[in-house]
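Study this one:
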Amino acid sequence: MSATIYLEGGASGPDSKDLQIRCREGFRKLLEKCDYKGRMPHLVACGSRDSAFDDFKIALAEKRASDYVAMWIDSEDPLTDLEATWLHLNGRDKWTQPAGAADDQVLFMTTCMETLVAADHAALADDYGAKLQLSALPPLVQLENRGRHDVQDKLVHATRNCTNAYAKGKRSFEVLAKLTPSALAEYLPSFVRTRRILDHRL
């Protein structure tokens, strides 16, 4: 049995190879802290959300019966039903559920990767130091119901006076690697779901 997760992240362009390495590294370190070190899935940084879906479909068609393939992507919008992942993707993106695909093969960052980052105030304070404006971060209550642009903008604004201000790409994956799973699980139902699925599948 093998497990592979196709990640949204690591953009295309001249720096794509470096960003894909950093993307995989950030997610790998987070998953290691979830106690998956001895059973780590193969992580593939795909760049765009559409690319992650395309790579997932190819892998799904080629996998052995015992293999687990999944994609870990932004939900982009808040979820009506955390478990009905393909219903969300069909309604929002007009993506058709591939034959043989199950809801637990879609792992969501709800609504975006920055939601994970914004959920861990202690890690942010440790990383950014005294110039971090904690009061400018989005409220932790029902954090996954906030729009992705709102979360992203507030994270950038809260770190604007820091020398290493938050930005998508290299910096975002560095911060991702420093997050604490218990902090994410406290505020993010989608992260709790991801861990539950990986506990069962890996």
